[in-house]
């Protein structure tokens, strides 16, 4: 089962793209196949969710500055050093915490980077950000083998698969 964690600050424009994507995915992904979390930032407490025995893969989703492509997708290695578990906790450190505290070295993780442009306080995601979200949603559907509700109902506004 997938654990999908989208994070970012919704008050800072594109910084919230990971969180917005998680909310979209949570609206249609079957809860028996994926657990989706939308959060402001990564915290050590998420290791407990990641350590659940039915979780085998973790997908982190976050907006990235200065990213040339709309999406990047990279497999992560668990970082054995905890580093600073405060505001700057990285996904690889969270994998390391989970492996160390809960004996889950078998857990695999990936980071889906979402291109962000405007991270200003109070900004709203613009048309480009909406395109990034749509592409990312399609990508997650593909890698997880899920299909969105619009596809299953045959809705004329079908935009996936």
UniProtKB/TrEMBL annotation:
SUPFAM superfamilies on file: HybD-like
Source species, domain of life: Bacteria
Gene Ontology biological-process entries: protein processing
Gene Ontology molecular function, alphabetical: endopeptidase activity; enzyme activator activity
Keyword Oxidoreductase part of the UniProt annotation: no
Signal peptide range: none
Gene3D superfamilies to which the protein is assigned, alphabetical: HybD-like
Keywords attached to this entry: Hydrolase, Protease
Transit peptide is among the record's keywords: no
NCBIfam families: hydrog_prot
UniProt protein name: Hydrogenase maturation protease
């Amino acid at each position: 089962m997938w654990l999908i964690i989208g994070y970012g600050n919704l008050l800072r424009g594109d910084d919230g793209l990971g969180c917005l994507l998680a909310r979209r995915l949570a609206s249609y992904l079957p809860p028996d196949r994926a657990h989706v979390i939308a959060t402001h930032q990564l915290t050590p407490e998420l290791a407990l969710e990641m350590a659940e025995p039915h979780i085998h893969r973790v997908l982190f989703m976050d907006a990235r500055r200065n990213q040339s492509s709309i999406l990047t997708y990279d497999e992560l290695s668990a970082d054995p050093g905890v580093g600073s578990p405060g505001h700057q906790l990285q996904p690889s450190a969270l994998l390391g915490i989970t492996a160390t505290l809960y004996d889950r070295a078998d857990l695999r993780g990936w980071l889906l980077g979402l291109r962000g442009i405007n991270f200003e306080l109070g900004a709203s995601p613009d048309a480009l950000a909406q395109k990034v979200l749509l592409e990312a949603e399609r990508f997650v559907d593909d890698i997880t083998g899920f299909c969105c509700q619009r596809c299953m109902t045959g809705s004329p506004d079908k935009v996936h698969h």
